[in-house]
Amino acid sequence: MDRFAEILSGPHLDLLIVGTRVTLYMAVLSYLLAFVMGNVLAAARVSPIPVLQRAAMAYVSVFRNTPLIVLAFLFWYGGGRAGWPFGRLTTAIIVLGLYTGAYIAESLRSGINAVPPGQAEAARAIGLPFTGVVGTIVLPQAIRTVIPPLGNLWIANLKNSSVFLVIGIDELTRAGRRIGHALADYTSAFIVVALIYLALVYGSAQLIKLIERRLEIAR
Amino acid sequence: MRMQKKSWRIAATLAAAALVVTACGDDNGDAEGDGDGEGSATEAPEFEEGSTMAAIQESGTLRVGTKADQPLFGIEGPGGWEGFDVEIAKLIAEGIWGEGGADNIEFQEAVSAVREEILQQDQVDLVVATYTINDARKELVGFAGPYYLAGQDIMVAEGNPEGIGGIDDLNGQTVCSVEGSTSIENLREMAPDAEVIALDTYSACAEELSQGNVTAVTTDNVILMGLIHERGEFELVDNAFTDEPYGIGVQLEAEDFRDWVNDRLEEIYDSGEWAEAWESTAGVVAGTPEPPAVDRY
Amino acid sequence: MSTVIVEELGPRGLRRVRIATVLSLVALAAFVGWLLWRLAAQGQFEGRLWAQFVDFESQWPQFLLSGLWGTVRAAVGAMVIAAVLGLFLALGRLSPTTPVRVVCGVVIDVFRGPPVLLMIFFAYYALPQILPSGLAGAISREPLYALVIGLAAYNTAVLAEIYRAGILSLDRGQSEAAYSVGMTRGLAMRQVILPQALRRMIPAIVAQLATLTKDTALGYIITVSDDLMGRGRRTVQGSPINDLQTWFVVAVIYFILVWALTRLARRLEVQQRQKLGAGAMAVTGEAELDMLEEGAAEASRAEG
């Protein structure tokens, strides 16, 4: 127990706080990017333009089938050789957002397919163009349908942020390793870090349930 | 007629002598030096009955643990094992069997984590593997040497644009090192105002330096030398600020062996073979230091 | 593909689509072209940087085959362990005995909650401090073991949830029929429910194998040297400096492997639909496969 008290105090606690903050910062910003990407890709997927369809399919395929760590290296070290202008943390956020965006795109696509066709027909009947049909009528309903998967992708996104410690990001898992090394006791350090993650995941799950319930009522 | 025969015999004797001298002088190709061209051990010495050295000599094999992935010090390449540690091991073998003793070495990879274990379990006779001597380890294994004083140093881009002269200059700079290493702890302690980027491998740090994301990389000069050798676009500040004495690990009970290895080390210090070993390996990227005094404890 | 979003296109519509197509093509081509030009300007297409990967005599066999073999070994090893242990965990989670159910539920959440990288770190850094020295030494010496242990622990919990979802999705009629002919719960489970449920979950399990294969790449961080990432690291440490080229080739290899597994999962799933019709588990695309996993998590949380 003393060990845990030791971890939760002084410089070690600072490391944990900084790590948690960086993790959350990365998670939020990357998810926002992912959400935007996901919407754009889903729209491209259902658009009548084959080029866009194919491009979106290719993007989704590439980003879902390649390990995130390899993508991180490609963008940070590979990109670095090609004049990639963004800094370390920004790159991490971008790569993570692009990665999760591919998953969100697929979720949204199935959500779009679940929206009753009558909705789209009615939208066109009142004269909305493609962008309007998708943007104003279909997507919002699709999103509501897929809140649970989107919520779980948020959780997955949050956990995936840990991978970026390989390019030197000071996030939570790295903080745990550093504390473990300093104390020569990795077990306690990692247990503390795991508990923090569990808290974040549990909190997220509750938040998602809350959002679902709210939207149900709105319907 | 008698005159010619005599001169023939003289000529023949001289020729034979010349042959013998050249045969003795040219051993492993790395023994060309400052007139001490011959190795200091040309024939197998006699060892006391029952001593470790005698046992090794009789067995015909010296088992050595060394690094396999540390450029310039211990690396296993397509041409065999190379590096400064490897050369030291070879010189020790020559002390046991004389010339050609290096052929009796059986090398095996000794990663940092297992160096004590393989000695304790009698898997090797010697460990020459960038092995820092410290008190904790002295409880588990014996150390001959040190045979080299490594130390933490700094690597910067070629031309040293930021003019880094030592650890203090790192304050205010972005510096890379490996998470969990002694080097990074020293860095955080001695240059608290440096921005530290902690990665998982030194080659990743080298890549960061190469791309200009960091100003410097810090760790043991041995590792830095290897990186410089491989990538050729960096330079060493060459101002070590810690002391890492590298020793030759032997089994804890083999005190006679330890004493003898120390003797052998002093021998090769004097004969210039130690310097030659350095020059043919790590010496390509760094100047030749003075051999450190061995520590008999 | 939802065709109702856009109606049958008249001449004006077709023209607009054509314009949009051309614009998109131009934009994409410009982007890709610019990217390639930037890389070329930095000399990234120089022959010597790519030479290692085209030299089929020496580098490819060692690099590709042995690295790939290491990756496959790690993935399969972890999967087998997870598949077996996960089944027990799932059954425990479904147990009528409350303490067993609760404990298993906690175990699943604890092993699934943190990032998989943390589980791998735990296996690599923490286990050697806990385990007796023999095992501990084995793990320190060969990080691949830690990778497999970490992955297995995480995926045991994930598979447990997949199993549970599969079992629960089975038509209740099956279990009721089994009980009505006098089978005990255990017997019903073994003879009737599990065989059917397991068969239906094969696509989901294969899809999870694909994810697992991606996760083996994390072994790089704990210095695994026998797999694809390890080979990548060795290549990058040597000369010439070809980080971009190396990781690109590594990415392509992973992509092919994972993509093949995902395709297999989808094909299995389609086969199942054909065989079982309406009774098949509703697992269509990857999105559903994800949702299935999440749905299982949802179900578990809803049950509490």
In short:
The complex is a heterotrimer of chains A (219), B (297) and C (304). Chain A is mostly helical and 219 residues long.
Annotate the secondary structure layout.
The complex is a heterotrimer of chains A (219), B (297) and C (304).
Chain A (H helix, E strand, L loop, with lengths): L1 H6 L2 H37 L3 H16 L2 H14 L6 H27 L2 H9 L4 H16 L1 H14 L11 H12 L2 H33 L1
Helix pairs in contact in A: 2-3, 2-5, 2-8, 2-9, 3-5, 4-5, 5-7, 5-8, 6-7, 8-10, 9-10
Chain B lengths: L1 H24 L26 H8 L2 E5 L2 E2 L3 E4 L2 E3 L1 H14 L7 E5 L5 H6 L5 E2 L7 H4 L2 E10 L1 E6 L16 E5 L3 H9 L4 E5 L2 H9 L5 E5 H11 L2 E3 L7 E8 L3 H17 L1 H8 L17
Parallel strand pairs in B: 1-5, 1-6, 9-10, 9-11
Antiparallel strand pairs in B: 2-3, 3-4, 6-13, 7-13, 8-11, 8-12
Chain C lengths: L10 H31 L5 H8 L4 H35 L4 H15 L3 H15 L2 H9 L1 H27 L2 H9 L4 H31 L12 H10 L5 H34 L9 H18 L1
Commentary on this structure:
The complex is a heterotrimer of chains A (219), B (297) and C (304). Chain A is mostly helical and 219 residues long. Chain A has one domain: MetI-like fold, CATH 1.10.3720. Helices cover 84% and strands 0% of the residues of chain A. The model of chain A has no long low-confidence stretch (mean pLDDT 88). Chain B is of the alpha/beta class and 297 residues long. Chain B has two domains: 140 residues, Periplasmic binding protein-like II (D-Maltodextrin-Binding Protein, domain 2, 3-Layer(aba) Sandwich), CATH 3.40.190; 85 residues, D-Maltodextrin-Binding Protein, domain 2 (3-Layer(aba) Sandwich), CATH 3.40.190. Chain B contains ten helices and 13 strands. The radius of gyration of chain B is 23 Å and the shape is elongated. Chain C has a single domain, classed as MetI-like (MetI-like fold, Orthogonal Bundle), CATH 1.10.3720. Chain C has twelve helices and no strands. Chains in contact: A-B, A-C, B-C. At the A-B interface, helix 4 and helix 9 of A face strand 10 and helix 7 of B.
Give the key terms:
heterotrimer, A: 219 residues, mainly alpha, MetI-like fold, 0% strand, flat, B: 297 residues, alpha/beta, D-Maltodextrin-Binding Protein, domain 2, 2 domains, five-stranded mixed sheet, 10 helices, 13 strands
**Greatest interface (CB-CB under 8 A), with counts per chain:** A-C, 70 and 65 residues
Main sheet characteristics of chain A: none
- For the secondary structure, the number of strands of chain A is 0
From the helix content, strand content and strand pairing of chain B, which structural class follows? alpha/beta
How many domains comprise the coordinates of chain B?
Answer: 2
Taken as a percent bin, the fraction of beta residues of chain B is 15-25%
What strand line-up does the widest sheet of chain B have?
A: 5-1-6-13-7
Q: How many individual β-strands of chain B?
A: 13
Number of helices of chain B: 10
What would the average pLDDT of chain A be, to the nearest integer? Answer: 88
Give the overall form of chain B.
Answer: elongated
Share in β-strands of chain A: under 5%
| Main CATH class of chain A | Mainly Alpha
The SSE order of chain B reads HHEEEEHEHEHEEEHEHEHEEHH
CATH fold node name of the largest domain in chain B? D-Maltodextrin-Binding Protein, domain 2
Rounded Rg of chain B: 23 Å
Separation of the first and last Cα atoms of chain B: 68 Å
State the helicity of chain A in percent bands: over 70%
